[in-house]
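Let us practice reading a record.
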Amino acid sequence: MRFAFLFLCSLFFLAACSDKQPERILILGDSNGAASDGWAVQLQKQAPEYTYCNLSISGNTIGFDNLGRDTLNTLKNLPSYLERARQQMGDIDRVIVWLGSNDCKAVFDSLQEQVPANLDALLSGIEQQAGVSGNRLLLVAPTPYAADSLLEAKYWGGNDRLKRLVPQFEALAAKHQRGFVNLYDSLCMDFPQLNKDGLHLNETGATKAARIISNYLSNN
C-alpha cells in the first residue's frame, strides 16, 4: 500500500514537471539582433530551453527617431512591443535589451547626454508595464565600433561615444539591481575578427556574444 502511494506521488510529480512552461524571453535589439545569423538566432540555438520573441529591428535606437522615423525609437514603441510579445508568448518572464549603437551615430553627437536618461526611462517602463525587474531584466552593453577609417561617415566618432556610455549603462543597471552584460569590453580585443563591416557582428562574433548571454541566463 505504501509503495502504491509513493508510486502515485511520483507520477503526480512527473506530471507537474512536464507541465512546466519554459521561460519566455522578449528581445529588444537592433540590426545585430535582427540579422539572420545574428546573436538572437545564435542564442536560440545555444539555449533552446527558452521561448523567444525577438523584436529586434535594424536601425532601432533607445530613444531617438533614427532616420527621422519614430518607428525606430524603442522608448516610444515600448507598449506595442510588449503587446506583440504577449500575443506571441503570453506572459513575459525575461527581457534582454541590446541597444545603444545607433544612439551613438554622428547625427546624435550633440544629444548624448539624453541617452542614459532615455535608457533609464526604457528600463523603468519595462519594469512597470511588463513586471520584469532585477536580474531578469538584462541590459547588454553593445559591441564596439571599428576605427572611423573603416566606417561610413554617419558612424564617425561612434566608438568614442559608445565607450563613454558603457560605464553609464553599467551604473544604471547596478543602481536598480538589473542584470548587466558588458559585451563592449568582452569582445573589444577580438572585434576586428568578429565584425562584417566595422559595426555589425559576423557569425563568429554573434556566436561568441550569444554564448556570453547564454551563460548569464543559465546562472541567473
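A brief commentary: The first helix runs from residue 2 to 18.
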